[in-house]
Design a protein that fits this description.
CATH class: Alpha Beta
Order of helices and strands: EHEEEEEHHEHEHEEEH
Structural class: alpha/beta
CATH architecture: 3-Layer(aba) Sandwich
CATH superfamily: Class I glutamine amidotransferase (GATase) domain
Helix content: 25-40%
Number of helices: 6
Strand content: 15-25%
Number of strands: 11
CATH topology: Rossmann fold
């Protein structure tokens, strides 16, 4: 069983949170949802309510084995907070399993660690990754060592399979 951190805030793409989290839990992993404020409930773009377990100030990367970053408008808000960026950066530097879908890879740009990494993202995020030095592919799932990225909700089956496999 792995301990997986999920960083999220309002306007996350609902299914990009619910589907991977369900897959991770069904595979026996422990999931902790992290945001700016504990005990709060954030709302997805389509109305899903997500209860926050811990604040970013209450956790450290060493508490977790892996990280999940769902897409939607959430990653754009998260990347404006240096604490979130530092949290993500620590997972990448430690080569811990790190998973991001759709707009989630926006956070990697803020870390300065995209150069030479293979990844994918939503169509509008791919040029940003490219300009930040990533090797961008238009595939449902791109795996670069412990970094697993995916494009959009249509790719969730492949993404979920890949992230569960990465934790075996």
């Amino acid at each position: 069983m792995s301990k997986v951190a999920v960083i999220v805030t309002d306007f996350v793409e609902d299914v990009e949170y619910t589907s991977p989290v369900e897959a991770l839990k069904q595979a026996g992993n422990d999931v902790t949802v992290i945001e700016f404020e504990a005990g709060k409930t954030v709302k997805g773009k389509h109305g899903v309510n997500i209860k926050i377990d811990k604040t970013i100030d209450e956790v450290k990367p060493d508490d977790f084995d892996a990280l999940l970053i769902p897409g939607g408008f959430s990653p754009d808000q998260l990347r404006a907070d240096e604490r979130m960026v530092d949290f993500v950066k620590a997972f990448l530097l430690a080569s811990k399993p790190t998973f991001a879908i759709c707009h989630g890879p926006q956070l990697f740009i803020q870390t300065g660690l995209t150069k030479g990494r293979k990844m994918t993202a939503y169509v509008t995020v791919r040029p940003d990754l490219y300009y930040a030095g990533a090797e961008v592919e238009d595939q449902p799932v791109v795996i670069d060592n412990n970094l697993v990225t995916s494009r959009a909700p249509d790719d969730l089956d492949q993404f979920n399979h890949a992230i569960v496999d990465a934790l075996k």
